[in-house]
Amino acid sequence: MSEAEARPTNFIRQIIDEDLASGKHNSICTRFPPEPNGYLHIGHAKSICLNFGIAQDYQGRCNLRFDDTNPAKEDIEFVDSIKHDVEWLGFKWSGNVRYSSDYFDQLFNYALELINKGLAYVDELTPEQIREYRGSLTAPGKNSPYRDRSIEENLALFEKMRSGEFAEGTACLRAKIDMASPFIVMRDPVIYRIKFAEHHQTGNKWCIYPMYDFTHCISDALEGITHSLCTLEFQDNRRLYDWVLDNITIPAHPRQYEFSRLNLEYAIMSKRKLNQLVTEKVVEGWDDPRMPTISGLRRRGYTAASIREFCKRIGVTKQDNTVEMASLESCIRDDLNENAPRAMAVLDPVKVIIENFPQGEVEMVTMPNHPNKPEMGSRQVPFSREIYIDRADFREEANKQYKRLVLGKEVRLRNAYVIKAERVEKDEAGNITTLHCSYDPDTLSKDPADGRKVKGVIHWVSAEHALPVEIRLYDRLFSVPNPGSAEDFLATINPESLVIKQGFVEPGLKNAEKGKAYQFEREGYFCLDSRYASAEKLVFNRTVGLRDTWAKMGE
Ligand code: ATP
Ligand code: MG
């Protein structure tokens, strides 16, 4: 990885430093445990950078483990996309990909161990009754009438569950802990339930599946994870994590530490809601460039380095907070400002005829590929009598603040000549169709000889040589900062989140490379769209604008 700067520090790394110093551990093992029920998003990137980053910096290991205990919602498509995204972010997991389902046999045996110790029982309350018996934050729960069955009876019933003799929802295995515990997760949590669903890894071998809280701690211990890092909503579950490991025969006892989730303004991180956007076709798919998914950001033009940098900047704490979209954008802008070659594109074209420029003549003008990086070289761009400029770069009248082309006044064409607007041609509706200009032949990349000051600079493309292009401009997907808390988040979709323009780009972009970013001068950073661009058609996505427009767009 290129960014070999100082290591980040955070409370988790301090704990690791202490554990190494005290000799509690001599090597560190973390894991990233996604549930394959959706594509990864920028919140997952935070967890990935934390877990894999620690393994890298401490010469430890980080496992990729699919937490696949709910076959009904999972899919191999998600498994594949998650592997790809982790690799694309620049990380390598230790050994083979792991699955919680690899441990189904062991998990079953640990469940038997709990039953044999009188610490688990088969309950036949209905799911509704279980909820009712659980109590609330203010009221204790009450014991199930099935709680005191004998070990033999429990073993026989659990075997009946496994062999498919119970219907879904008619029996489950529960840990026997404490129905009056102030921690609701400790009120005899369900650890196995019946599900007649085919599993993407184990097929039809099982019709009972272990629950997350039972599976996760045991999987961690079996893999020799030292520090099991998860988000704050699992704080209470840590008690159950420890209870399970304390009550079974297993040599390791990893420690769980919680950190705050990433929340991003104007975005949604819930996989259930992201899935809804996809299935209801509000967006094109998980990789829609407006999605906060890794695949969406990649298609939008974000680099892996910019996402890693973002995760570094936001840090890891226990404080809940919401990060501004502007801070994500500034990471990609900083990256591309350094690395993206410049090019010219006119997004909203109006034709300009330079009347004193010789008909049929083409002059090649030299343009640097980066204003501050001569090592990035230069290119030749054709200039001719007819060009396009952006409609917004011309006004018939304007005050001094407007530093572009005004009727009767001059402006510089970037890396070319000074032109003067002489007259406008309009259609019947009053729209400008053509601008007639003159140029000063003695101003190619130099100031006018008589000392006239020409302040403004605008971009342009030669009409005859320019290539037609479709430009996709993206804005925030939601029109409120916290769509997740809206009663109906779909009602907060920003109708302007995608605007498509038909413009022109300089001819050199015929060979634009997929996956490469360009700065279109004065417009922003763009990349070819991986879905729509083809040999016949140039389609560019705007990754981000040149400046932060969020501040003034807010409120
Ligand atoms: P959801 O609640 O939307 O289903 P999840 O947290 O269940 O998401 P997982 O696939 O279980 O998604 O997440 C894998 C790992 O990524 C977990 O360790 C989880 O804590 C972490 N993670 C998920 N979302 C975020 C987030 N917004 N910020 C930081 N870490 C996250
Ligand atoms: Mg989860």
UniProtKB/TrEMBL annotation:
This is Glutamine--tRNA ligase. Gene3D superfamilies: Glutamyl-trna Synthetase, Domain 2, Glutamyl-tRNA Synthetase, Domain 3, HUPs, Ribosomal Protein L25, Chain P. It comes from Buttiauxella warmboldiae. A motif ('KMSKS' region) lies at residues 268-272. It holds the Pfam family tRNA-synt_1c_C2. Its EC number is 6.1.1.18. InterPro entries: aa-tRNA-synth_I_CS, Gln-tRNA-synth, Gln/Glu-tRNA_Ligase, Gln_tRNA_ligase_bac, Glu/Gln-tRNA-synth, Glu/Gln-tRNA-synth_Ib_cat-dom, Glu/Gln-tRNA-synth_Ib_codon-bd, Glu_tRNA_lig_a-bdl. A motif ('HIGH' region) lies at residues 34-44. GO terms for molecular function: ATP binding; glutamine-tRNA ligase activity. PANTHER family: GLUTAMATE--TRNA LIGASE (PTHR43097:SF5), GLUTAMINE-TRNA LIGASE (PTHR43097). GO terms for cellular component: cytosol. It catalyses: tRNA(Gln) + L-glutamine + ATP = L-glutaminyl-tRNA(Gln) + AMP + diphosphate. One of its GO terms (biological process) is glutamyl-tRNA aminoacylation. Residues 28-337 form the Glutamyl/glutaminyl-tRNA synthetase class Ib catalytic domain. The lineage of its organism: Bacteria, Pseudomonadati, Pseudomonadota, Gammaproteobacteria, Enterobacterales. Residues 457-529 form the tRNA synthetases class I (E and Q) anti-codon binding domain. Residues 340-440 form the Glutamyl/glutaminyl-tRNA synthetase class Ib anti-codon binding domain. Monomer. Coiled coil: none annotated. It comes from the Bacteria. HAMAP family: Gln_tRNA_synth.
